[in-house]
Every structure is written in structure tokens, then in C-alpha cells.
Amino acid sequence: MIVLLPLAVIGWYTYVRAVDQFASHVGFTVRQEDQGQTQALLGGLAQLAGPTAAGGALDGDILNEFIRSQGLVARVDERLDLWSHYAAFHAIDPVFALRPGGTIEDLHAYWGRIVTIDYDQATGLIGLELRAFDADFAQSVARAVLDESQSLVNDLNAAARDDLVMAAEADVELGLARLKSAREALVNFRTRTQIVDPETDLEARMGVQTSLQQQLAQALVEYDLLVQSAGEQAPSVVQAERKIDVIRDRLADERQAFASDQSYVGVEGYPALIAEYESLTVDREYAEETYRAALAQLDAAKASAARQSRYLAAYALPTLAEAPIYPKRQQIMLVSLLFLCLGWALVVLIYYSIRDRG
Questions:
Q1: Domain residues of the chain, as ranges?
Q2: Which of 128, 129, 76 is nearest to 104 (CA)?
């Protein structure tokens, strides 16, 4: 009664009422293109694409969750009308068929019964087994899952490309703003000091004073020679004295002008002016190099975005079953016999335990 009668009912249902199910197998993985020099040029920008760009392993995790998701079930149902197929045999086989008139949550729960996922996280390989009451329909479901998975990979690819280009464009805008600021600071410095290059201006002024000092020294030597040869009252000596006075006045004017410029540019004078100019020049050169690098990164990002960096590679296309393999009747019978025997043994032990105590 405890073992044979339930076992007979289970055997009758599995062999008489249960409808045969066919299985279609498909296998795929996500491959990522080796971009070589492009990725090296992009540098850290590739990391801004987020986890979806980290390679096949994370893409496999996403696909694994996507295949189990309610969203995929809704898409496949819209494409193939899963309700019509899996609920058609509910009157004959209420155990293995889908109960009609349910919700998307019911269909999603039933999806877990007809789809078996074999996912190897180390290699990123995904193997699927999809069951249906018809071999062609099982193959159609497998193709639909493969197509939807490819669409997901394309969406991930597009999102990664958009993030990469957006990050590169943001760097270009930041570099351009920094370059404009550096150039404006240099222009303001030149407007304020009225000096294009303090070093060149200082060299020019010191060169003029040095030249005047050399001319003064030469004029003094010539004056001494004329005094010794022609006397102090000679016209040539008077002319030499005038020349010396003119050079001295000119040298004094240059020194006075240089001193007034020193007070204009600040207490510290030209050293502080040159230090400020060099700092502004370094900022401008750094901004120019950063901007050029950002432009190169943007060009590389656009070149990378024009290519398909990741794609779905199917190593096993959806198969067409020639014979049903579900439900596994012998396996069901053996498992049922095991649990029924265990239940019978438990009932016997409880019975004898109660009888011995009485």
C-alpha cells in the first residue's frame, strides 16, 4: 500500500499521461577582440567603460543572469508565443505542462523547468538545454535565446563604446579649458608688464648698458691720448669731452629707466618677474601637451568605437532532436521507489516504536 500503490500510480502517469519532450542544445561564449595598440593608446580610458568591458568572464556572468531573467522570457514569448505551446497539453499532462491563463511570473517560473544552464565561469562557456513538446519548437526556442543573447552583447558593446568616447570627449574639453586658461594668464601677464619675454627684455637692456660702458671706456682712453698729444684746449679734446658726457648721460638714463621698471614690476624686480613668466610658460606647455594627448585619445576611442570589440561566438548551434529524452521515466521510477521505501521504513519504525512502548 505504501510503496507499490503510489509507485504504480507514478508509473502509469509517466508512461501513459506524460507527454514526450524534445531537447535542443546550444553553446556559446563572448569573445573580445584584441585591440593591441589601440588599447595601449587609450590607456586608462578603457577602465571607464565599467565592468562590462572587463572581458569574457564578466560578460558570461551577465549572459548567465540574462538567460534566467524574466525579461528574456517576455521577449521569447513575444516572438514564439510560449503560452500556446507549453499550455496546449495541460489537460493531458498537468504535471509537466504549463497551466494556461497564468501571469508572466508563472511563465518565468516554468522557464526554469524547461531550461538547463551549464555555465563555466573560468572559461566563460555557456551551454543550454531547452525542452519542448516538439523538436522544431525546441530548436526555435534555442535560436531565439541565441539571438537575444547576441542582441544583449551588441547593447553592451554599444554602451562600452559610448562610455569610451564620452570619457575621451570630456578629457578633450577639460584639456581645452586648461589650455585657454593658461594662455589667458600669459596674455594678462604680458598686458600687465608690457613685456613679451622678460628674459629677452632683460638681456636687451643689459646689452645696451654694457655697450655704453664699453663705448665710455673707449672714449676715456681716446680722451687721455688726445690730452697727452694735443693738450686740453685742443678742439679734438673738447670734442672728446662732449662725447664722454653724452655717453655718460645716456648710460645714466638707461640705468634710471631700468631702475624705474624694477620698481614697476615689483619689489623683487626682474628675478620675480622671470620666475612668474617661467611658471606661466610651463603651465601653458603642460596644457598644450595634455590637450594633444586628449585629442589622440579621442581619435583612438572613435577608431575603437567603429569596430565590434566583443561578439557572441556560438561553438554549438541549436540542435534538432530526433527522439524525445524527457521525461526520464526510468529515473523518475527509481527515485520514486527509493523515497517510497524510505517512507515505508520510517512508518514501520514509528509503528514498532509505538507498539513497544504500549
A1: 4-8+20-171+309-346, 172-301
A2: 76
Distance (Å, whole) CA 62 – CA 54: 12
Among all chains, which residue has been given the C-alpha cell 522557464?
111
Longest CA pairwise span in the chain (Å) = 160
pLDDT at 162 over 60: yes
Highest mean pLDDT among 232-246, 276-290, 292-306: 276-290
Query: From the CA atom positions of the chain, what is the Rg in Å?
Result: 46
Query: How far is the C-alpha of 345 from the C-alpha of 357, rounded, in Å?
Result: 18
Q: What pLDDT is stored for residue 263 in this prediction?
A: 46
CA distances, 102 to each of 77, 87, 91, 259, 319 (Å): 13, 10, 15, 96, 30
Instruction: Give helix 235-265 / helix 198-230 axis angle, nearest 10°.
Output: 160
**Contact status, residue 157 vs residue 310, Cβ threshold 8 Å:** yes
Bridge partners of residue 118, in order along the sequence: 127
**Would the pLDDT of 43 be above 60?**
no
User: From residue 170, how far is each of 174, 290, 299, 317 by CA, in Å?
Assistant: 6, 13, 13, 42
321: its cell numbers? 532532436
Fold of 172-301: Helix Hairpins (1.10.287)
